[in-house]
């Protein structure tokens, strides 16, 4: 038979799958394992939002909608962008799709020709590098170290730009690091992008989850030039605990938005009508429960960071947003724990699950070797027990 697509064959499976599969099998076998890999809030979708979805079913809102989303939902997005970030968008500049991940793919599809380079700051969310490859783009990984708070500097960005560079993919606040760019840092990056005429795909899905009173700055709010070259990615999954409803949205200039909408129309078609009704209710309704969740995550973050930094052999810096913390394993490399020589983060994660009964995500898949990611989107009881097991595991 003829060969498969070379682009498709170059896409790698998620590097986190092996640990996840082992965790799920151990849990199914009745073993008392605790997972810190979840990339979703552990809260339930607020009642008012669920009721809007139920009402949509009862009112037969069960048919196709416009490919880019209902006017109602796109207007709700515009209103939320104005209320939260002072940004003026029209419904024609908004594209709704089946989750924020799909919109990152659509944005890359709209921008990237085969061979175009896309700058990707590391640590990065595991799917970004594969999404770039899936459209025939060339990921140019630029590493931001822990000493740099895992944040790309304007100088490093400028050094990575070539004649083939088309865009940069930012995630702010970041998965996996939880770090957030200040307005001043974004302005420096925007100046480089303006000079090199780069598009900016800014994934702001965790914008609602920031801590210590820090104010989030949307890239598009930096000025008209930044807004024109930015494709903002967001959604309802993190803010409203709606991961399974599968609704994300993007805001861009009308030309880019139209191309993205065309791709939706010929691939997935319109997002789920029921989910769109619930999402419109989420965006236009009270935001009190968003704040309640944010406060709970901040309390958990404070606890996990304080306790983790008291355990000999590991450390972490304090994340500013999202619900992840990156644990530094450098002091453990070369040591033997439970008869296993810890040579890298993958080996550590495997041993920690087998002998410590705790699942964490290796940093290698995020472009962050010798780190592991903990998600604190879980109960305080689980966090306390997980850290106790870490201390016990490391003492062997």
CATH architecture of the largest domain: 3-Layer(aba) Sandwich
User: CATH homologous superfamily of the largest domain - what is it?
Assistant: Type I PLP-dependent aspartate aminotransferase-like (Major domain)
Strand order of the largest sheet: 2-8-7-6-5-3-4
Number of domains: 2
Helical fraction equals: 40-55%
Mean pLDDT: 96
Count of helical stretches: 14
Which segments are poorly predicted (pLDDT under 50) over 5 or more consecutive residues? none
The secondary structure category is: alpha/beta
Q: What shape does the CA trace take?
A: globular
State the end-to-end distance.
53 Å
Please explain how this structure is put together:
This protein has 396 residues and is an alpha/beta fold. The chain has helices spanning 6-10, 17-28, 47-58, 71-85, 100-111, 126-134, 154-160, 183-196, 224-229, 254-266, 273-284, 288-308, 345-356, 380-394, and strands at 34-35, 94-97, 117-122, 138-143, 165-171, 199-203, 230-235, 248-251, 324-328, 336-337, 340-341, 358-359, 361-362, 371-375. It has two domains: 6-44 and 289-394, Alpha-Beta Complex (Aspartate Aminotransferase, domain 1); 48-286, Type I PLP-dependent aspartate aminotransferase-like (Major domain) (Aspartate Aminotransferase, domain 2, 3-Layer(aba) Sandwich), CATH 3.40.640. It has 14 helices and 14 strands. Strands 2-8-7-6-5-3-4 form a seven-stranded mixed beta sheet, sandwiched between helices. Strands 9-14-13 form a three-stranded antiparallel beta sheet.
List descriptors:
396 residues; alpha/beta; Aspartate Aminotransferase, domain 1; Aspartate Aminotransferase, domain 2; 2 domains; seven-stranded mixed sheet; three-stranded antiparallel sheet; 14 helices; 42% helix; 15% strand; globular
